[in-house]
Amino acid sequence: MFKKTVFLILLLLLTVQSSYAQCAMCKAVVETGDTEMAEGVNNGISYLMVFPYLLVGVLGYTLYRYKKKAEN
Questions:
Q1: Distance CA 20, CA 42 (A)
Q2: SS3 content of the chain, % helix, strand, coil (to 5)
Q3: How many angstroms separate the Cα of 35 from the Cα of each of 12, 42, 46, 59, 61?
Q4: Cβ-proximal residues to 46 (8 Å cutoff; 6+ apart), any chain
Q5: C-beta atoms surrounding 40 within 10 Å
Q6: 32: part of which helix (H) or strand (E)?
Q7: Where are the domains of the chain?
Q8: Cβ partners under 8 Å of residue 29, min gap 6
């Protein structure tokens, strides 16, 4: 079961497609600018979006290790 879960997580992480979404304020700023600035804003949003997932992953891994250690 564990190997299947790890495989599924790796598969999902490796098949992520780029998304181009912005908040209303970012969209208004980008519409007045050039395409390089728009790409920079999208990259910044994607960069900031990664950290909550990393934190949840680290928390999950830590809890898994704690539970595994408690079983032994």
A1: 6
A2: 80, 0, 20
A3: 29, 10, 16, 37, 39
A4: 18, 19
A5: 13
A6: none
A7: 18-71
A8: 41
How many CB atoms neighbour CB 25 within 10 A? 8
Token pair of 41, please?
């804003």
pLDDT in tens, the chain (72 residues): 888 899 888 888 887 666 565 567 777 777 777 777 778 877 888 888 899 999 999 999 999 999 999 887
What distance in Å separates the CA atoms of residue 64 and residue 51, rounded to the nearest whole number?
20
Contacts of residue 41, Cβ cutoff 8 Å, sequence gap at least 6: 22, 26, 29, 30
- Please provide the size of the chain in residues: 72
E strand or H helix at 1: none
